[in-house]
Design a protein that fits this description.
heterodimer, A: 225 residues, alpha/beta, 4-stranded antiparallel beta sheet, 7 helices, 32% helix, 27% strand, globular, B: 545 residues, mainly alpha, two-stranded parallel sheet, 23 helices, 2 strands
Amino acid sequence: MYVKIESLCFAYEKHDDILNNVSLTMEEGEIVAVLGSSGSGKSTLLRLIGGLEMPGGGHVMIDEKTLCSTTVFVDAEKRGVGMVFQDYALFPHMTVEKNVAFGLNKLSRAERAKRVTQMLELTGLEDKRHRYSHELSGGQQQRVALARALAPNPSILLLDEPFSNLDTDLKYRIRTELRAIIKQTHMTSILVTHDYEDAKAIADRIVFLEEGRVVEESRIPHPKA
Amino acid sequence: MLRRLKTKANVFNVTGLVAGLLIVIPLLTILLRLFEAPSDAWVHIRTHRLRDYIEHTFVLIGVVAMLSAAIGFFAAYVVARYEFKGRKTLQWMLILPLAVPSYIMGYVYADMFSYIGLVPRSLRDIGIELNLAVMSMQGAIVIFTLTLYPYVYMITRSALSRQHAAYIESARLLGASKWRTFWQVVLPLARPALVAGTLLVVLETLNDYGLVAFFNVQVFSFAIFNAWFSFDDVGAAIRLSAVLMIIVFVVVVLERVLRGRRRYDQTSRPRPLPRRALKGMEKSYPWMLWLMLGGGFFIPVGYLIWLSQFSRVGFFALETIYVMLNTLTISLAATLIIVVVAVMLANFGRGRKTRGKTAWLKITNLGYAIPGAVLAIAVHVFFVRLDRLLYPLYRWVDADTGRLVLSLSLTMLLFAYVLRFMAIGFNTIEASYDKLGESYTEAAYTLRSGKMKTLLKIDLPLIKTGIIGAAIIVFIDVVKELPLTLILRPVNYNTMASRVYEYTSEERLAEAAVPSLILIAVAAISVYVLTHVKSKGGVGRVRKN
């Protein structure tokens, strides 16, 4: 298994459990949607995988590398995990190009430029290269966030409610587009959402989360793209 | 046409128009005098002194701006991002140095470090010879920084504590180290606040006259006063003012240009980063802040208390009480006028924002960017003209009247206070209105409530906290004001600030300690109220949309 999450637990001080023994395994290149209502702990799951919160217990292993266990905790900046935030969190003081290049500072200048161009082509944003995020539409902003997260070639891509900031009519088109881009890069991805339709349109498999527990799983048949 | 005029002729628009005119006219009057033939004194100043004035001014504002920005940002960062014992106390106390006017701090440190002062004398007893030239450019820089950094601190702290956690988390997930995240994300995002605070520091430094005169640091405000009082040459003073205004203009425009197309708007619902505990070296941060606060507040206040025992004019002397009553009366009057006009102006600015309206509001609030010396000249010249214009009217009322009436009265000083501090009241009140949104007011209008009724019954109760805040900030500034007071006050009229100045220029430092302490106490209590009234609900609970 490419991704192995075992009995992950999390609770804030003096509060009920947010996550209670959550386990999940994924194959390489698989897209899993975690579906749940607000407060079900689905965003927390992503933050734990990303290393933004410290779990109360459990293991996370990706590509044979332990990211956290009882003895190990790899810091967020060393994990190599990509994340698209709910409000995209595009750096407002940087252009599209600079945003995408942010995670590539270890590459040489030439390699970096090449990778940025490649990412912008993948997401169809070549002509928006020198724009600032406030000069883009919601859909374009989302693609920049995706390009930025994919650029350093992370081991896994995490998407937190990627459609909550988009108009409904825009959403339909973007869903298929998003799946196509992710599948093209063969990126293992977890997406959390509260919308069943979103989950169905994008994911290979849906995991239902309720009050911090996995309650059900279902596989979605997709026609071969 | 008439219909359009009628719908627009409401109380808010009229106030907006009149308030703008009242600042434009005085400024135009001095602008016109620029075209008159230059005097000999001006020729002398231009050929021999101007270069020095410009150079000194730029060195002073440049270094003070950099130091205050660094210190203010550091203080804001520590208080906003770390949790430690005493954080809440530090959070408001770090604003306290604003209660100590720089001219008072100046004479305190000058006296403390003079040859026979407390510090060198005590050191001499244990065999150390210390010769610190406090009364110098360097001394002025340190004192301005210690008293003015709170402007940067206040604005930056509120920006940092609202900074969206997702930006920082994104940077980390993209592999950026803490250091890189700080330099490339945290700091640039806080830039607008940092710049706004630093701009206030620069404007305050340019405005000061008391400290630079006492330390003999030859910058512009010093030069303007000098031209006016020593050379008795208003024309030269006006020309110097024009050059100073060009400097202010360049500073403001430069900031706009550097900002470019970039924006720093953050998401509408930021999720702030939780504060974390101090680790290792970081544990020294709060101590550094306490040390700074010691130098900027506790040491000068302590020294003043010690000094006051030698004063021949006590706290309860008739003279002291009289000056205190003067100060409170005129400060409260100015505050009241500013708050009322600012509310009208804020209403004038609400609703559809046209370019003309925005520009006019900017002009109305120009006073704060105009250094006291310049504004004083403008107001003085304007009032003398006004008196000349009104002379027939005076004659009609009283046949034996002198030619100057208004310009010899307190009206002139009050008018100058209002012009200078309008922006401070306006900006605070406008911010409250922005937070409130339009819907409550519009709902009231659709329920057939008139403009005035809506203002009194709906708007004012909702922005109460903002109004109280505005009033306190304006009040503190008026109480401390020196350059305008010195020039525009009637003969024998004193506020605490001008009394302090008089005593210090006569080298009667012990006597100066008493009004200084009262002034600092009034301002410090106001700071306390300001920082503690805001935390209680009020507008904070009303969400936009």
